[in-house]
Amino acid sequence: MSDADTIGDDDDRILAAEYVLGLLTDDDRRRVDDRLGGDPALRAEVALWEESFVALTDPIPEVTPPERLWRAITSALDTPVVTAPKRRGFGILGYALGGVLAAGLAWVVISSGIMTPAAPEYQARIAAEDNAVVFAAAFDEDTGQLALEYQAGAHAPDRSFEFWLIADGEAPVSVIVWPDGSQAEVVTLPADLAAKIPGAVLAISDEPAGGSPTGQPTGDVLAVGPVQEI
Fold first, then answer.
1. Alpha helices (H) along the chain
2. Are 49 and 71 in the same domain?
3. Which CATH number characterizes residue 101's domain?
4. pTM value surpassing 0.85
5. Quick one: how many helices (H) and strands (E) in the chain?
6. Residue 1 domain-assigned?
7. Chain segment 57-105, per-residue pLDDT in tens
8. Are 205 and 164 in contact (CB under 8 A)?
9. How many domains does the chain have?
10. Is there a contact between 86 and 219 (Cβ–Cβ < 8 Å)?
11. Domain range holding 35?
């Protein structure tokens, strides 16, 4: 960030941009506010940046967020996030069904547009402890659709990511073997599986290319995320 005490007139354009974006410290912002009263050139720079940034949002339609979104954000701000360590197999998923379920998660934005922000009632961030593998998930009860979005990570050569739904006390159920190169997928869950979404855990395992040959996880658990109501 720029220092409003030392910045020169030639850099006022940068200072104005930082001011509009809210990147200045409180003290620096107050100094700029003081200057604006008697500096028409700086006021013009600020106005130009405001118009430029507002124009970036013009193509985006206005959407009123649902009330449950604000409740989820408020809850997430007050709740520590617990990430899942990498483990071998699913026999010790107590950490996921216990402490991780209490983790607060930020609102998941499915940027591909396959699910509108107002539709899903549940969401999850499926991530490795070091964020080497990260996916976002959103579930719509009305349609039974689970929307998944790739965010980071790559599987080993000749291996695949396989997604699993784990309900409390039950064996993992395969949801999808992630198609190579895909950025987003939508899976319509059977009614019996969809009913287990509340309180469940989504996990990703490392499997042979094409998925587990046994119908149960055979490789390392790469990422885990609790499903949380929005």
1. 12-21, 26-36, 40-56, 67-77, 94-97, 191-194
2. no
3. 2.60.40
4. no
5. 6, 10
6. no
7. 666 666 666 666 666 666 666 555 544 444 455 543 443 443 333 333 3
8. yes
9. 2
10. no
11. 9-56
